[in-house]
Records
---
Amino acid sequence: MIPEPAVWAIILLPLGSLALIAFVIRPFFNRAARLSGYITILALLGSLALSGWALKSALGHEGPIGFTLHPWLTLGGPTSATGFTFRVGLLLDPLSAIMLVVVSGVSLMVQVYSQGYMRGDPGYSRYFAFMSLFTASMLGLVLARNLIMLYVFWELVGLCSYLLIGFWYHRPAAAAAAKKAFIVTRLGDFGFLLALLYLYFHRASFVAAGLDPFDIADLHRAVATGAIGGMVVTWLAVGVFAGAAGKSAQFPLHVWLPDAMEGPTPVSSLIHAATMVAAGVFLVARLYPVFVASQMAMNVVAVIGGFTALFAATMGLVMNDIKRVMAYSTVSQLGYMMLALGVGAPVAAIFHLFNHAFFKCLLFLGAGSVNHATGTFNMQFMGGLRRVQPWTYATVLVAGLSLAGIFPLSGFWSKDEVLVAAWRGGTAFSQVVFWLAMAAVFLTAFYAFRMMFLTFHGQFRGGVEAEQGGHASGEHRVHLAESPAVMVFPMVVLGIAAVVSGFLANPVVDLGPIPKHWFAEFLGGALGETHPQKTSLGVAVVSMLVALGGIGLAWAMYGTRVLSPQRVGRALRPLHTLLTQRYYMDHLYERAIVSRGFYKGACQALEKFDDNFVDRAVNMVGWFSRNTGHSVRRLQTGQVQLYGVGIVLGIIVILAVYLIGQ
Amino acid sequence: MLSAIVFLPLAGAIIIGLLVRPARWVRYVAATVAVADLALAIWAFVLFDTSVPQGLQMVERADWISAFRIQYFLGVDGLSMPLVLLTALLGMCAVFASWHIQERVREYFVWLLVLQTAVTGVFVAQDFILFFIFWEMELVPMYLLISVWGTGRRENSAMKFVAFTFLGSAFMLAAILVVFFSVHSFDMEALATAGLGRLLVPTRVVFLFFFLAFAIKLPVWPVHTWLPDAHTDAPTAVSVMLAGVLLKMGGYGLIRINLGMFPQEAATLGGPMMALAVISVLYGAMVVFRQSDLKRLVAYSSVSHMGFVLLGISSVGAAARGVLNPVGLNGAALQMFSHGVITGLLFLLVGLVYERAHTRHIPHLGGLASRMPFIATVFLIAGLASLGLPATSGFVAEFLVFVGTFRVAAWPTALAAFGVVLAAGYILWMIERSLFGPQVARHEGVTDASLVDAVPMVALVIAIVAVGLYPAVLTNVFSAGLGPIIARFGP
């Protein structure tokens, strides 16, 4: 069994790497910035090794391993209904163990790749410092046993994405995208915060049962024993889901993720695969018993997830920026995970998260590699790259097939489980989301292969030089060649994972060392889903055919150009415009609501009110007292006679009042 | 001990005023005094015994004007102690932030140190008259510092500040006198523990008199308008002191006097107080968005953030309904400290930016992060702390306020908590416009922070992060002092 300090070390190693870079390398050895990369990679290697040990311990242990709780902040009596206790502790169970491996493994690959991608950037050390903190925060989030602790890491993950999306802060678009990501996710976090407050609101029920409301294990127990129930659970789940929807970019809070492209590509890769967006799905899975206890909350999750899966996929159809296609793809795939959670299949959701992490990370690294060669992310100016970048092409093709859900690649297995779960969900909602998800399968296959054909097939269309009319700046140049080995190596590793992770982790037959349905058995117990999903050949075949149909259409339009994309676009012009304008949602949020309604409306009105009314009222008081002073001063004539009259009058008045009072 | 902490800056001021001849030595003497005072305050903080359940520690008591039973009576409890530490910390930062003052250096430092004595005195005085003297004493240096070393419409702003505070003080003096003529005592501790009994004037009126005085200082909407003006025109160090500690005098007074001595009234008027708090939070936050001057922006954000203090204070009133709730008030006290260090740091940074870029007009800034990475980094940390990012003190304090208040009044708390989302908006927007983006040609020559500038920045960042990571270091002290006050609300 893994000892507690070793589990802490999973989080502390990358934190130590941050400290070392920030306080030693950056100030004193900035010339040797490459050290920062090595330090980060070493730390993550350590984390990965320890994560493996943690996974092994979780495998050999019945039920979750709760480590010692350390009292951190106590107010009032720890057991009184009005006190407040915050105890820090770690929770290692199958869910967190699997997430640990995914996060540290994917992050490690991204860091190796970054050494090549970020080479020569003036912010090299800063980049790896932020990446270390990013990984550490995500690992902390995964291991947290206490909801407040989870919330702390949750926000730190948000902070790091802010810092990394805005890494090139001198670019206005990057600075704006970073801000947008932080604010939109914080809007969701507001719901999470309210859920925490609401949880404390019911502290008395917990304390009566000897439980701590913020302790995740205790919360599960409270739901199981009925210490809390009914609408309380529903509100709790909805609040938590608001936070999860913000982080996991679910409709209507999805708008930040496509803009997050402004960060360096490996950052996008990490955000889209293992950190940040995965946090939302993880959170719902982490508090799964709470969600299960409320059918209403489950329906919300399923419908939002299913809708997002289709909605985001439609926008992915028309984007020309390769990273934007991927971004909408991620939003859509996260929708699949959410809908799986909503229809009662948490194992399928986490399984999809697991597989998606590898192939989506790879797709982004591939986009970075392509950008390395062409200097642009605009697919209009790519083409024909399979000849110059065979390794990139091969690995991205694997990832694309996996994303499309083609047998026997990893995406097939988990997407199939999600679809089956929805098919067998048994409620009207799950039927609806099944068809949404099935439609999205077609679109996914289409946009994935539209991307493949535009990028790697056909003739090269000039890269950044053509895009900028021959005025390529020094920073971006066309340099048609395969990326360096340090970038290709992680892509190959991830490519292998994208091929086998689905089949090997959760095989449909016994594979010797790996028993049948290993993943589902391991995780299912922890998530209260004891019976592994039955596979359905019918659903599998249909979804495969649908996906092949999508690929076929993409081939027809962008491979052979039998169908001219321009003609199709013209024929469907209103729809095409709606999609390229992203359903005008950014427009609505940024221009109508924030700029016009809030900034120029409410805020300006209050500002005017403050200046013209509140402040003026105060000045009026000053003016009034000064003028009173002026008028009263005239009475101070210095003539004793006048004062005498005053005194006499005063006495008469007092006497009169006294006598009347009598 | 306490007398030393209180009067060391005054002694330093006298020495500077009378003895230190070469003007260039002045700042060294001031720095020595400020650092020594901070060391004393830290020592006192360490000596403070949190295991003593209640009552004052380090008491110094002597008859002063026995005819009126006025005493020289100093003491600290868990509420005062962190605020004394805060004052000493920010006092030191203020001295370092004034390093580049060129005009009438001697007088400047004299008044700055006098200010520190006055504010520290407010937090440790346990006799009403002594309290009032320190309270008023703070006005003189503030008036002079703003009107002589300030910028813009400085005389006007200084006058506005003084007029507002005076208005409040007049009500406070009246209230103190009513209390004295009713129970013949100025002893704040005895008055609080024994209860006031029947007063000559209805208790509610006395309560409201005190409340007005402290609400102006805090400041609470709608008596906040002196704050943006005073801040905008004050020199950097004075803004630091003003936002960092002077506003805390209001919160301190509310807790010590309004809650501590008038639990019944505080419970009855909890609702209106909470309404004012919520308005302050949201109103302040929304007006922030419209500000284009960095200092005014931070000033209005103070209105919003100090609203959280009032929110936590108002939550205690519900104790009368049978729920003794220490969390919200502890959060409010912690928020006072936290806001002190965070906003102190923000004003310090705005000062540094202004010194270099010669403008605080946000549209004229931009791209500064490339020119001054260290200042920009610290600015970012301070901004993130101000928007309540976990691992900074701002998060812990606001979270505790919300947790404590939500139990009592869920909807008002939810509304106020939205202030945190708004804070993310205005802080990040401000940072984006002033620090990020392409470099601006007019800021070609700006330089990063010097070593002297870095001292207070580093000190405050350490304070912010330390409290954020391990808040118990302060909450243990605060709750020792707040416990007896909350207990008075018991059934």
---
Amino acid sequence: MKYPFPVGRSDFIQGDEAIARAAILAGCRFYAGYPITPASEIFEAMALYMPLVDGVSIQMEDEIGSIATIIGASWAGAKAMTATSGPGFSLMQENLGYAVMTETPIVVVDVQRGGPSTGQPTLGAQGDVMQSIWGTHGDHSLIVLTPATVQEAFDMTIKAFNLAEKYRTPVVLLTDAEIAHMRERVYTPNPEDIEIIYRKLPANKEEARYPFGDIHGDMIPPMPVFGKGYRTYVTGLTHDEKGRPKTVDAEVHERLIRRIIDKLEKNKEDIVTYETFDLEDAEIAIISYGIVARSAIRAVRLLRREGIKAGLLKLNTIWPFDFDMIGNIAEQVRKIYVPEMNLGQLYHLVREGADGKAEVELIPKIGGEIHTPMDIIERIKRGV
Amino acid sequence: MRREMLFSGFGGQGVILASVIVGRAAAVYEGLYAVQTQAYGPESRGGASKAEVVISDEPIDYPKALSPDCAVFFSQEAYDKYLGLVKEGGIAIVEKDLVPHRRPELEEKLRVYALPLTEIAEETTGLSLTMNILTVGLLTKLSEILTEESIEKAVLDAVPRGTEQLNLKALRKGFELGEKARKGEL
């Protein structure tokens, strides 16, 4: 297979471009989208590359159509992706829930910009954190990944596809305008060195009868390809193991929803990733994610030079959320700081995890600029 | 080693392209870490334009310039806004004809190279818009982070097909000016 971009070496590219290239290397062959700053470059790259790898890139009438189309493409057997920003992500929420309910592997990229509404199109923000987790209605779970560099945007796009396929779930890649438009060195491995996961298909006709049944005991039903196997429904209504609507049976509903949530919650160890910097002996912890984590790393370095024992937990996955890990950190440190480019979102999850064992303080910033290391340092010094 | 560079002017002058070339040379051809970021208004021409490049031999945490070691000013507005950010003893390259009002009290703490860059570019290649590439050449020589070879490769990657020789000519004129400037012959 010949790729329409360099592989096996480094390039100097924007975050959006990295996401498009990584998606293709992960096996994505269907992209549907609607242009929006700062996600448009993903679409532009897909429009250019897809025809060259026998894939499809299609412009839909809006973001509702875009996500609906990739859900259909996924059921037809393709790895599929869409990308948008806040206003479009709001429109996608209903169908994001449909993908959760029908257990459809898709990747949705949300390149955050200042909101609400059309807000600040060209500027970065982290205002969609709660929306990415809880934007769709009803009890549910999904996976949300948060890259901090262009290389991570590349690596986490591949991971997003792998997790979507492995767990039959929508995965949100939650990035922002800063990373989208920033250029950095990105190493693109040779395709044969990239681990690629494909969804579990029914092994035989009997298995194909239960596209929503936990027939392997791992909570993940094999997913048949549309047009092959048995006739079934793919419905957002509560359904039984065969896909038949069962909308007033409490037991069926509970079994389905608990399995959809548990297949992620009980595999947290596999799904949740993070990094720590100087956290082992820290008395003050910073918990951060995405672009702001880079300012936080520098803040930790500078604070350490002044003898202040600071450390960082950088979250690469913000849902499922490891509340226990936060609890352990809260037992160790005096205080936890959460710098975010919003007025407090992940902060609330951290407070829940800390459960009163350590004070948790938000360092908010909105308006489009990322926190400088000094923004973080000054706030921490005020409390020392 | 962390070096910060700032490129500023207005849209259409190739401010962002200049920064991409420098970042690319560092990241792809020198094996260094580099981050290029940009800020500009919604207009594609005429609005204020600013780009930054951070280069380091280790992974770059905070991706923006805090106090640039080198800065390029292609407009009065940019000069007024950003000259004060340049690190003491840092390099400032000024497009002399586009920045008529200067601030000697700030410049005396810097190594300032004020030249009619647009005019020199036009004399060299016949095209004033090669001014950004010429400036990249000048900056390369003055900042001493990147080699001529890396920058040449990055220029060839970035410029439109058919304009390679023209742009290399502008770049080499920039090298020549930079060499003279270093020897104090400018």
